[in-house]
Amino acid sequence: EATQAHLDRIAEVDGDVHAFLHVSDHALDVAGDIDRRRAAGETLGALAGVPLAIKDVLVTTDMPSTSGSKILEGYLSPFDATVVARSRAAGLVPLGKTNMDEFAMGSSTEHSAYGPTHNPWDLDRIPGGSGGGSAAAVAAFEAPLALGSDTGGSIRQPAHVTGTVGIKPTYGGVSRYGAIALASSLDQVGPVTRTVLDAGLLHDVIGGYDPNDSTSLADAWPSFAEAAREGARGDVLKGLKVGVIAELPDSGFQAGVSASFREALALMEAHGAEIVEISAPHFEYGVAAYYLVLPAEASSNLAKFDSVRFGLRVTPHANSTVEDVMAATREAGFGDEVKRRIILGTYALSAGYYDAYYGSAQKVRTLIQRDFDAAFTQVDVIATPSAPTTAFKLGEKIDDPLQMYLNDVTTIPANLAGVPGISVPSGLAAEDGLPVGIQFLAPAREDARLYRVGAALE
Ligand code: GLN
């Protein structure tokens, strides 16, 4: 019933929203099988039978995986990403694959090779990115739960602009195996949902050690669903020290975003939280460091799309050499933003420039990590607005990469430091009535703290 209802909803609204690149043609069979197992007396988990939308960056054996790129059009993976395999094992019903900026590069889903996704709150506006499809699917009630990936904000910023909940787990907390790599030292997979409890339930299913991911943490994690339940009923805000960053410039933040942020802090204070100003002097250099580290890693990760191993192959003429075929394939298969970042990355890594660019960026990354280490000796969580503005108009920033990159000023530092972050809805901006999110950051491995605080505010 739940699967049918969501397939009906997709049929009704996805022509306008375009959250999905592919809708499963056997979701009802999978759901029917779950029903039969339940009827036969099998004990199934809390999410058995619940439909799940999957960002197209995650590979699946039964549906194509394109990562939003023409170069992977029609690609079928021989294996499931670990998070997909674990979801299936828990009885979740994959509904389809969601739209995204090509190879997860972007903040608006306009860089998808398959056309943009529209924000369900206002179809003329962006749903955020790169995981705009997953966030829009959840916000438009096309799916109750979705999976996303967050390299610099691609779960949290779409959550902010669509009024949904998004979590970037601690680096290593959720397996990256089968997540088509953008920047391997920054990428994390996580939940996109309508409530903090839903996110915790999904995180409990997908998280934990995976021997197939060499950066997977072997920690025993607490139940994040339980943490969310504690937050919802308990007095977790009493005595909680919430850090706000002194150096975060007020300029660049839309008035309604700043106002919603201040209201959320006041609400927390009224419930016993202590708001503490902290210093994180390198936080604002995150964007600059990220746009060297990310292109460097991406240029290396995307080298495998060489026309031989995966997807598209373009043979320009009868006497083409291997180099001709590779160049023509990459020319035709990659979009402009992907090419821009490959060029930036190879330049930053080239002999003679490596120390000046990549080396410097790595040093800034360390300084940001130290800022966090110092801040978390004084506070339990750090709070920021999740992004500077509400959903902007489709087309508004597409020709201005720098403006697009600045969307991630508050989300990027968590990826550079490996710490977890959550975006939870904090209300609507007075000037445009669009959703706003508040972000909380916690020390690495303290994801449960974010579920408690997020659920308390909900
Ligand atoms: N918007 C950021 C970028 O363009 C973040 C992307 C992501 O998290 N995948 O790189």
TrEMBL record:
Task: State the top-level EC class.
Answer: ligase
**What domain of life does the UniProt record list for this protein's source?**
Bacteria
InterPro entries per the UniProt record, alphabetical:
Amidase, Amidase_CS, Amidase_dom, AS_sf, GatA
Catalysed reaction(s) here are: L-glutamyl-tRNA(Gln) + L-glutamine + ATP + H2O = L-glutaminyl-tRNA(Gln) + L-glutamate + ADP + phosphate + H(+)
Q: What Gene3D superfamilies does this protein map onto? A: Amidase signature (AS) domain
Which residue ranges does UniProt annotate as crossing the membrane? none
Q: Enumerate the UniProt keywords alphabetically.
A: ATP-binding, Ligase, Nucleotide-binding, Protein biosynthesis
Q: Where is the Amidase domain?
A: 1-450
Q: Which residues form the active site?
A: 55, 130, 154
> Zinc: is it a keyword of this entry?
no
Q: Name one Pfam family in it.
A: Amidase
The EC code for this enzyme is 6.3.5.7
Q: State its role.
A: Allows the formation of correctly charged Gln-tRNA(Gln) through the transamidation of misacylated Glu-tRNA(Gln) in organisms which lack glutaminyl-tRNA synthetase. The reaction takes place in the presence of glutamine and ATP through an activated gamma-phospho-Glu-tRNA(Gln).
Query: Subunit comment for this entry?
Result: Heterotrimer of A, B and C subunits.
Q: Which family does it belong to?
A: Belongs to the amidase family. GatA subfamily.
User: Which protein, by its recorded name, is this?
Assistant: Glutamyl-tRNA(Gln) amidotransferase subunit A
Organism, scientific name? Microbacterium alkaliflavum
